[in-house]
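Why does residue order matter? Because the sequence determines the fold. Keep that principle in mind as you read this record.
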Amino acid sequence: MDVIVSSPQETKELGVKLGNFLRPGDVISLNGSLGSGKTYFVKGIGIGLGISEELVTSPTFKLINQYEGILPLYHFDVYRIKPEEIEDLGYEDYFYGKGVSIIEWGNNVIDYLPEDYLEVLLKKTSIDNERHFTFIAHGQRYEKLLADFETVVEI
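Structure:
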């Protein structure tokens, strides 16, 4: 599934819509260059989970931020770590817990991701503030999620 947004606000709105479909144990891998909109997208997901936008920040130096909402949101940034260092974070407790796990730079720890997860690729386009999102379902849960999500997103 591909979606193009034309502003940071639309990036957040897309995240809000996705957030409305998430449930405990969901794992999302975000991949895109610096400045592609990953954190704005997570802010939107947080809003969809009942978390104040101002609370959601990039966990670049903390590696993981946790927010309480309708569901807990576990926001990882694994850009600066070696893949095996995710083990030190107790990642399994998050990935298989009661909340939603979002991993920025998820491809860096792909061997640690569950078999089933949602992959989101973000790309800047040649137009200012425009972003191209590609959603890839890994597993039946995420195929269903994307089918439902597609009903509320203009493609």
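The longest strand covers residues 117-124.
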